[in-house]
Amino acid sequence: MKIEMPENVKNIIKKIRDAGYEAYIVGGCVRDCILGRQPNDWDITTSAKPEEIKALYRRTIDTGIKHGTVSVMIGNERYEITTYRIDGMYTDHRRPDDVTFTSHLSEDLLRRDFTINAMAYNDEEGLVDIYGGMEDIEKKVIRCVGKANDRFDEDALRIMRAVRFAAQLGFNIEEETYIAGKEHAGDLKNVSAERIETELTKLLLSPHPEELITMYELGITDVILPEFSLCMETPQNSPYHKYDVGRHTVEVIKNVPATKIMRYAALLHDIGKPLVKTTDSDGVDHFKTHAVKSEEMAEDILRRLRMDNDTIRDVKIIILWHDYGISGNITKKSVRRMLSKMGEEYYESLIEIKKADMIGQSDFRLEEKKDFLNNFMTLHDEIILEKSPLTMKEMAIGGKELIDMGIKPGPEMGSILKKIFDMILDDPDLNVKEKLLDIAKSIVGDIENEE
Q: Alpha-carbon distance 29 to 41, whole Å?
């Protein structure tokens, strides 16, 4: 087989080989090329020691020289070159305590996680596939290199990576690998939140986020997201639902756009349901205030995963408002107020999660739910077309006009502007400077009379 490599990568391999060493592209880039996917990185492995690579190139970076990795700079591009190595003990289930360089490619490939990631290639020798990676690609299975227990004992994150690759590639996890993953899932407690978040995010953004259920079955979510495990164990005995909370959540994830904000909003939109669940005398479950509870829990979970503040803010807002209008009694006035509080910029996201939420529910009163959503969208479009003010910045008067009336900046001015804005939300036609000045004078007069 022939793999088309970037010119710089070909030149690096040739230069290393011309100097008397072995060199190959290795790992994910080989796998992706076989699958017809565009590699994100082109990793190179070699028999040359780090100092020997540094002697060949003028511009290098000691990326991870302790573990044999040197980066070579060609123009603005960086290429990681790692010496063949054998990993020592993994006493923390995260990283090897030490590494030993080796001259044998087979020993280097043996330390890798899965067979599909343990192949190497160069143009002269073609594909080097010692551990059956090509066969597993053809069978569409994720299989550990060597003994699965050993691979997971070395680095527990590989358990999540197995599920993530299954989600990205549409593969199944081989039985021994699956069983070992279940046995070692508890070791994920030793893995940093940042590494956990990276793998969870990649799974959520994959074509098969439903593999989250596999994470639950393996016991992974018990460690990294116990709140979701509880959702999987929380039935929804209600005519509006056909799944438990967890499986409903997965359906919603599958049906929102594959963006980080939307997939995390879907993951956590009902995360508070198990904690607010009540059951009436007829045996029907209710989840009142679940949106508020879910928003509160989402912040704790996302901070635990070391998520950035902007993502946390956006996810929380979508979660808080995802159940808006559940009663169906909405008016243009109420929609204006809702958009003002939520922020009109989140409208499209809200529609997406509402549509997905419906897909994940039963067909009970489905037409009513569709009518509500259509009505909501129509009212929104009318509000935007009418250019109704939705923020205080859009008011026809502001602090300057109140200062001219003798009102000093401070809490009183803020209170007056807030009262005026509330009136505009009820009646946008009031948003004319002359009308608002009259209203402001009236409010000031009332305040003075009270004093």
A: 6
Listed residue (105, 108, 117, 144) closest to 31, CA to CA = 117
Which of 338, 341, 318, 330 lies closest to 375 in space, CA to CA? 330
Phi, psi of 406 (to 5 degrees): 95, 10
User: If you ran DSSP here, which 8-state letter would residue 78 be given?
Assistant: E
CB atoms within 10 A of CB 85: 19
Cβ burial of 116 (10 Å; 0-12, 13-18, 19+) is: buried
Rounded mean pLDDT, 159-166: 98
Give me 197's structure tokens. Answer: 């978040």
pLDDT band at 448 (very low <50, low <70, confident <90, very high): low
Distance CA 61, CA 71 (A): 5
Q: How many CB atoms lie within 10 A of CB 191?
A: 21
Find the largest Cα–Cα distance for the chain. Answer: 95
Is 390 within 8 Å of 339 (Cβ atoms)?
A: yes
pLDDT surpassing 60 at residue 93: no
Mean pLDDT of 231-247: 98
Q: What are the backbone dihedrals phi and psi of residue 262, each rounded to the nearest 5 degrees, phi first? A: -70, -40
Q: Are strands 172-173 and 141-142 parallel, antiparallel or unpaired?
A: parallel
Task: Give dist(CA 374, CA 201) in Å, integer.
Answer: 32
